[in-house]
Automatic annotation (TrEMBL):
This is Aminopeptidase. Residues 21-151 form the Creatinase N-terminal domain. Keywords: Aminopeptidase, Hydrolase, Metal-binding, Protease. One of its GO terms (cellular component) is cytoplasm. Belongs to the peptidase M24B family. The keyword Electron transport does not apply. It comes from the Bacteria. It comes from Methylopila capsulata.
């Protein structure tokens, strides 16, 4: 009945390959007189989604999570993952070869201090490590009396005989009708930022920044419409964009040449050398060490600081904001059609995780405007939902049985990017499950209703979402919210609601609001909507105040709520939210879905 076009459920992980591939890597390292190798899950752009040719950690270890860092020594190897992936790592990796390590407990720097032998030479690929990251690792190696050695050719590539070719997909223009600003205007604002920073040029290696600044998109990686390339933007003169010419049609080439010179990526090295004597702005936390050190070797002065494009990109303009609202209306209608369908089909006992994900994608495709899913849907029943970043495969595919079903999904439309999670009751939920669901909801409402002064960062409101769980001795291991792009990355910085979110929140920023709770081996809960930072007028306020507009429109399952745990204000918020969902989505769906919405959105 349904099928998925934009996501695959094939199992790509094979732990049995870990031992022979690790042995082959160690043999290769021996020929290079190296005692070890450092391998982050990364490419030269530090992308979240990598082209298949850059999935080296997955190929070597079997681990497919979005964060992973491997250290291979002659007698041991470790795979570092964060709290989202501790369970997944144990299932995907041969533990006799790679020891999974929670990076929150033991970061790679500490592990290296304890495990490196004096005199050891450990290799690394400087295209895959950020300047800031490799400097921390160098200090750790120095502490142990060892040395890190940059290699020209990645030894994993040398043993990866069937490595896919790098992507070569067409670059397409992102219409100003969606972007809301011309390239000329954006470059002008970037140059203004360089002038304020007293920098002569900006090196752009983040593909998201490249796409935003030059109003281009592509499909070099899955789920994020990125063209992979680079740019140098000078404070004076024309910018240079480094893109493979085979990706450019004559029309796209002409559009780009109106604002920039074009060159092949291979020409970047020489271009960096021509910046001798110039002050070049680089984001040390995002730029590959190879590029930064090439600049220094060529006589340029590095100015370390945040990439100004990241901040400019994070604050959406009015056209992008209107686009986000339109995308969420369209997406909300598709999601509500799915939820109504799910409510009818799940009790029959024949529905599974893959079928559910395929159905939701199909409802979105029926809008006629879906360009991709913004990430592979997390379609998780029962204990699978206790894995925050669970990815269903044909091997893990489970039936939807009584309890909770969690569906975390999103869409890419030209006018906006969406991300939404709903946890749905199938049959009955236990009293404990309802208690946890309600505490997550209370945290969600606390963020939705937060009012805060200008200058407040996500770190300062992160605890709002956790307090109801903390009061019961509970917590969750991921951030409360991440930034979201405009037909770009579903995980965008620098804005975030997290213990690490130090960037002040500003009007125009879009973030997720997604507290959760996960009981390993039993069930998981997450309630997520996207919110837009907006100005709030408060009578008598002595400071400029901000709050959130909720963008996502889809009901929250009232069957899982213990209404007695909600305050009167919380119940009023939920009833008002559901009334808005009914009013705005009810007119966009078929009569059967509208009738389902009317029942589902009734006041508590």
């Amino acid at each position: 009945m349904f099928e998925a076009k934009f996501q695959s459920f094939d199992e790509t992980s094979d732990p049995s390959q870990g031992a022979p591939r690790l042995a082959a890597l160690r043999a290769r390292l021996a020929t290079l007189t190296l005692d070890g190798f450092l391998l982050p899950r990364a490419d030269e752009h530090q992308n979240e989604y990598l082209p298949p040719s850059a999935e080296r950690v997955a190929w070597l270890t079997g681990f497919t999570g979005s964060y992973g860092f491997v250290v291979v020594l002659a007698d041991r190897a470790a795979l570092f993952v964060d709290g989202r992936y501790t369970v997944q790592a144990r299932t995907q990796v041969d533990a006799s070869c790679f020891t999974p390590v929670n990076v929150g407990d033991t970061p790679p720097t500490e592990w290296l201090k304890r495990n490196l032998k004096a005199g050891a030479r450990v290799g690394y690929d400087p295209m895959l490590h950020t300047l800031e990251g490799i400097e921390r690792l160098e200090k750790a190696a120095d502490h142990a009396g060892a040395a890190l050695v940059a290699v020209e050719t990645n030894p994993v590539d040398a043993i990866w005989s069937d490595r896919p070719a790098p992507p070569l997909t067409p670059v397409v223009p992102h219409d100003p009708a969606f972007a809301g600003e011309t390239v000329d205007s954006k470059l002008g604002r970037i140059v203004d930022e360089l002038a304020r920073a007293r920098a002569d040029a900006l090196l752009v290696t983040d593909a998201h920044a490249l796409a935003w600044a030059f109003n281009i998109r592509g499909s070099d990686v899955a789920h994020t419409p990125l063209p992979l390339g680079f740019a140098i933007i000078p404070a004076e003169g024309r910018a240079t964009v480094f893109l493979d010419g085979r990706k450019l049609s004559n029309a796209v080439r002409a559009d780009l040449e109106a604002n920039a010179e074009l060159a092949e990526p291979a020409a970047l090295d020489a271009a960096l050398g021509r910046l001798s004597g110039k002050t070049v702005r680089v984001d040390a936390s995002g730029v590959a060490a190879a590029f930064a050190r090439r600049l220094e070797a060529g006589g340029a002065r590095l100015q370390r600081g945040a990439d100004p494009i990241a901040k400019l990109k994070a604050v959406k303009n009015p056209v992008e904001i209107d686009g986000a609202r339109a995308a969420h209306l369209r997406d909300g209608a598709a999601l509500c059609r799915f939820l109504a369908w799910l409510d009818a089909e799940a009790p029959k006992g024949t529905l599974d995780e893959i079928g559910s994900a395929e159905a939701l994608e199909s409802f979105r495709r029926e809008t006629g405007l879906l360009r991709d899913v913004s990430f592979p849907s997390i379609s998780a029943a029962g204990q699978n939902a206790a894995l925050p970043h669970y990815r269903v495969t044909r091997a893990s595919n489970a039936r939807l049985t009584p309890g909770y079903f969690l569906i975390d999904s999103g869409a890419q439309y030209e006018d906006g990017t969406t991300d939404v999670t709903r946890t749905v009751v199938i049959g009955q939920a236990s009293d404990e499950m309802k208690d946890r669901f309600t505490r997550v909801l209370k945290g969600h409402i606390a963020i939705s209703t937060a009012v805060f002064p200008k200058g407040v960062s996500g770190a300062q409101i992160d605890a709002y979402a956790r307090r109801p769980l903390w009061e019961a001795g509970l917590d969750f291991d991921h951030g409360v919210g991440h930034g979201v792009g405009s037909y770009l990355s579903v995980h965008e910085g620098p804005q975030r609601i997290s213990k690490l979110g130090t960037t002040p929140l500003e009007p125009g920023m879009i973030l997720s609001n997604e507290p959760g709770y996960y009981k390993e081996g039993h069930y998981g809960i997450r309630t997520e909507t996207l919110v837009l930072v907006e100005r709030r007028r408060i009578p008598g306020a002595e400071r400029e105040m901000y709050g959130f507009e909720t963008l996502t429109l889809a009901p929250i399952d009232r069957r899982a709520i213990v209404s007695e745990l909600l305050t009167a204000e919380e119940r009023a918020w939920l009833d008002a939210y559901h009334a808005r969902v009914l009013a705005e989505i009810g007119r966009l769906v078929d009569p059967a879905t509208a009738a389902w919405l009317e029942a589902t959105c009734a006041p508590l």
